[in-house]
Design goal:
It is a single chain. The protein has 257 residues and is α+β, with helices and mostly antiparallel strands. The chain has 2 domains: 10-213, tt1808, chain A (Alpha-Beta Complex); 215-257, no CATH class. Helix content is 25%, strand content 24%. It is built from 6 helices and 12 strands. It has helices at residues 10-13, 33-45, 100-103, 119-122, 136-143, 216-247; strands spanning 56-59, 64-65, 74-75, 79-83, 98-99, 109-113, 148-153, 158-165, 168-171, 178-181, 186-195, 198-206. It has a 6-stranded mixed β-sheet. It has a 3-stranded mixed β-sheet with strand order 3-2-5. A hairpin with an 8-residue loop joins strand 2 (64-65) and strand 3. The longest helix is centred in the last third of the chain and has 32 residues, at 216-247. The chain is elongated, with a radius of gyration of 25 Å. The termini are far apart. 19% of the residues are buried. Mean pLDDT is 86; it is low at 14-18.
Length: 257
């Protein structure tokens, strides 16, 4: 009998977003799961204590229009944060895009998640075609002058941070894969843990005590656990009181205990 090879897994046989064309020839495809979940975690844990929540705007995969002279030019960061602007439009409606010359405030930090189709542009390793808009690196560094630019490669669990110093980005040295931003009173680092039931290295924010900022779901679980522990302590206290009364020959009325 002929020996047949074991069937290949879907991951080995099915095309990915990087193999398939997009309706828009300038786009590399739609975000994969990681590009959906990682920005959610960044947004969930981005809570600068020195800014009210309604003056913090974060977005992922949103068109960022950056040049009033070329109003159709845009970049679409994997995640970015702006400080000192309303979370919603003045009419309390959700934003459809972020237009820098209308908002008059540039992003404070941009995070790009490396992928095969965008890695060179994210790292500023592509030469600009003068007939086309500038690349991400040039836009963030030279036009928007974003103070902090973070890059995360989930395949290598590699986190790199660039800080605007003068006219250029300079890569900073990380301590334990973490970087503290004094102006935000927050730090950004690599956390190994489970988010949305996926255990892997993630990029997330931490506080001044080096504790990872909790997501709303984690806060709810922590609150429930604290309430459970409190109820257990009350139960044990009652049991000790009953035992003490019985040791004195008194049978307690359990309805009053």
């Amino acid at each position: 009998m002929y020996q047949t090879d074991p069937p290949l897994s879907p991951k080995e046989t099915l095309p990915t977003m990087y193999d398939l064309p997009s309706e828009d020839s300038d786009e590399k495809g739609l975000p994969d799961q990681f590009h959906l979940l990682q920005p959610q975690l960044l947004a969930d844990t981005f809570r600068p204590p020195n800014y009210p929540s309604d003056q913090i705007f974060t977005a992922s995969d949103m068109n960022l229009y950056y040049d009033a002279r070329h109003p159709i030019w845009y970049k679409r960061p994997d995640w970015f944060a702006v400080l000192g602007v309303p979370y919603l439009y003045e009419n309390k409606d959700l934003r459809l895009s972020y237009v820098v010359w209308q908002e008059a405030v540039n992003p404070y930090i941009v995070v790009e998640l490396l992928s095969p189709g965008t890695e060179k542009e994210d790292l500023g390793q592509t030469l600009r075609d003068v007939e086309k808009p500038p690349g991400k690196w040039e836009v963030y560094e030279q036009i928007l002058r974003v103070p902090y630019y973070a890059i995360f490669d989930r395949y290598k669990s590699e986190f790199r941070m660039f800080q605007l110093t003068g006219a250029r980005y300079n890569e900073v040295n990380l301590s334990d894969f973490r970087f503290w931003i004094p102006e935000l009173e927050l730090g950004l680092g690599v956390w190994q843990g489970s988010y949305k039931n996926v255990n892997m290295p993630w990029l997330r924010w931490y506080d001044k005590d080096s504790n990872w900022v909790l997501t709303p779901a984690e806060e709810e679980r922590q609150k429930a656990e604290q309430e459970r522990q409190k109820a257990e302590q009350e139960r044990q206290k009652t049991e000790r009181l009953i035992a003490q009364l019985r040791a004195l020959g008194v049978e307690p009325d359990l309805e009053d205990v």
